[in-house]
Amino acid sequence: MDKSSRFAAGKNRRGFFPSFSAGWRMNQEEFMKDISWIDQLKIRASYGSLGNNEVGNYDYQMFYQASNYTLGNVVQIGMAQRALSNAGLTWETTYLTNFGVDFGLFSKLNGSIDAFIKNTEGILIDLPAPLVHGNATVPKSNAAEVRNRGVELNLNWNDRIGEVNYFVGGNVSYVTNEVTKFKGKEPALNGTNMIVEGEPINIQYVLAVDRIVQTEKDLAIVEAMEQKNPDAFAKYKKPELGDFLYKDTNGDGCITDDDKIKVGNGTNPTVTFGFNFGASWKGFDFACILQGATGLKSYWNGQDGASFWPLVRRGNQINKTIADGRWYPGRTDATYPRLLDYSDGRNAVASDFWVQDKSYLRVKNVQLGYTVPKYLSQKLMIENLRLYVSIDNALTFTGYEGLDLSLIHI
């Protein structure tokens, strides 16, 4: 039982977050003792809950401050409500249910399989408030729910060939994320990130690019759209040679924000994985760790690719890939649109063209070592002496063209 003074006195102040776990070691049962190749077999289940009280200290109370107002053409000093209250605020709660199996086989293979469901309820979010409240701030409300579901597999193999000991292992997890309750069908947008019920958190919401206009045939498509609807390009500028032609996904004949589509699976990868392997022989040892993820798409912003835009401005740089792949008169195989002055952003509109797949495989660590025999190290009054060289983040294999901010240390 937890209590928080950030909530009003009474039942809302208290939070009860129980947890328990249970396991069954099946390999120790009488009916399995004759199965010699099973070293370990354990079935387990657990349930737990956690609370979050990250709100303002006085959000459940009305808050007044000194405020000036005019009465009889004279400035008066009074009090005004600067913050609305929410006496119903209470704990945000996460419930996690897990089922797993641990096993060991042949005295060489061991691993585990887990499946879990994680529900977060009463998430503290900001809801819109009627304009009648003026400039008074609005407290958070317990008004959202998110569900995560996933499975994870771990496997490790240890064996020996002659005088060489070796090991191979790996893990992989698959996780889906869904907003189950938010603001009904009303989305919340932050740049290209969108939160809406039924979709992953921060799914990308952008226009779709049909093509780069490079030929007279492409121009004819543009002209036909404008003839059919003179307002076809009223929202975004009419494309010319070298420009993007965006898709009219809703079929209304106009390119507007209503044509935006949902892209990706949010800001977290759906699959993460890792591998490790190594060997040892007569004091020498080698180990390598690989790590990666897939199922993550990200929109390029100023931090990821400030120079990765087809815009020209004095003092700014242009990425070489953009410069070499840009459209110019006479070219029909351009991979990027033409370069325009920074004031003309028709080709820098948020679209799926600028959404990058951030899947990767990284050589996280490579290590080579040698353990000095004890009869030599003890002469130096050292119980154990191991010399080694290690390389971190040696290589990364990815199609993503932006900066890897995870490797930048300040």
What is the topology?
Blueprint: E1 2-3, E2 14-15, E3 19-25, E4 38-52, E5 63-71, E6 74-83, E7 92-105, E8 109-125, E9 141-161, E10 164-181, E11 188-190, E12 193-195, E13 203-206, E14 209-212, H1 216-228, E15 244-246, E16 261-263, E17 271-281, E18 284-294, E19 297-299, H2 302-305, E20 311-312, H3 320-325, E21 340-341, E22 355-357, E23 360-371, H4 374-377, E24 386-398
Parallel strand pairs: 20-21
Antiparallel strand pairs: 1-2, 3-4, 4-7, 5-6, 7-8, 8-9, 9-10, 10-17, 11-12, 12-13, 13-16, 14-15, 17-18, 18-23, 19-22, 23-24
Protein architecture, described:
The structure is a single chain. With about 400 residues, this protein is mainly beta. The protein has 4 helices and 24 strands. The chain has helices at about 215-230, 300-305, 320-325, 375, and strands at about 1-5, 15, 20-25, 40-50, 65-70, 75-85, 90-105, 110-125, 140-160, 165-180, 190, 195, 205, 210, 245, 260-265, 270-280, 285-295, 295-300, 310, 340, 355, 360-370, 385-400. The strands form 7 sheets. A 10-stranded antiparallel beta sheet has the order 3-4-7-8-9-10-17-18-23-24, with no helix packed on it. The protein has a 4-stranded antiparallel beta sheet with strand order 11-12-13-16, with no helix packed on it. The longest helix has 13 residues, at about 215-230.
